[in-house]
Design a protein that fits this description.
Largest sheet of chain A: 7 strands, mixed
Radius of gyration of chain A: 13 Å
Oligomer: heterodimer
Number of helices of chain A: 0
Number of strands of chain B: 9
Distance between the termini of chain A: 37 Å
Helix content of chain A: under 10%
Strand content of chain A: over 45%
Radius of gyration of chain B: 13 Å
Strand order of the largest sheet of chain B: 1-9-8-3-4
Order of helices and strands of chain A: EEEEEEEEEEE
Largest interface: A-B, 29 and 22 residues
Order of helices and strands of chain B: EEEEEEEEE
Shape of chain A: globular
Structural class of chain A: mainly beta
Largest sheet of chain B: 5 strands, mixed
Chain lengths: 113, 111
């Protein structure tokens, strides 16, 4: 079946703008995760959803970052008032249950000018 | 969360076996060891997971000594396409636990 997909693959925006990044998990996977990866670093956890609810959002850096998963499938990561430091690759992953292997999407490369 | 330590980088010639060792001195009883592979411009890809002794699949082998304080990912006869970053993760498979990737080991396969 299809893997995790993310759109767009690349996003260039200007400082101060609002962006939305979308993740389509593997069908049937109840758990969904967002990570952020800066150049030369490993992925850094942002938020974890179990179903529709955010079960752990302790990785979100500040209140400019917000994520939703209204129907327990597709998720959107929203970043307000973007800053240059937000530039990174944003990765989404999903797993059948929280204790199962996570499968990653290709990521969205966000560039804030 | 058990912290992991692995070499920052390794070089290997094509056709050689590559062993990447990860230290996890504080591994807990319920923790499993998982390895991911990441190519440039792609998300990490699951390679192998184990709890103790040896696990083998079509891609790699994972060796875990009795004390479980370290583990070794073994890639047989590497090719140029195995050039990637390899991450060692340790975590409890029972319920949710935040995953910490670290900086991984950058493997460069040389022709």
């Amino acid at each position: 079946g299809a893997g995790v997909s993310q759109t767009p693959s690349n996003k260039v925006t200007e400082k101060g703008k609002y962006v939305e990044l979308r993740c389509d998990p593997i069908s049937g996977h109840t758990a969904l995760y967002w990570y952020r990866q800066s150049l030369g670093q490993g992925p850094e956890f942002l938020i974890y959803f179990q179903g529709t609810g955010a079960a752990d959002d302790s990785g979100l850096p500040n209140d400019r970052f917000f994520a939703v998963r209204p129907e327990g499938s597709v998720s959107t990561l929203k970043i307000q008032r973007t800053e240059r430091g937000d530039s990174a690759v944003y990765l989404c992953a999903s797993s059948l249950t929280p204790s199962d292997t996570q499968y990653f999407g290709p990521g969205t490369r966000l560039t804030v000018l | 969360l058990a912290k992991t330590t692995q070499p920052i980088s390794m070089d290997s010639y094509e056709g050689q076996e590559v062993n990447i060792t990860c230290s996890h001195n504080n591994i807990a009883t319920n923790d499993y060891i998982t390895w991911y592979q990441q190519f440039p411009s792609q998300g990490p890809r699951f390679i192998i997971q184990g709890y103790k002794t040896k696990v083998t699949n079509e891609v790699a082998s994972l060796f875990i000594p009795a004390d479980r304080k370290s583990s070794t990912l073994s890639l047989p006869r590497v090719s140029l396409s195995d050039t990637a970053v390899y991450y060692c993760l340790v975590g409890d498979r029972i319920g949710w636990q935040k995953v910490t990737f670290g900086t991984g080991t950058k493997l460069q396969v040389i022709p």
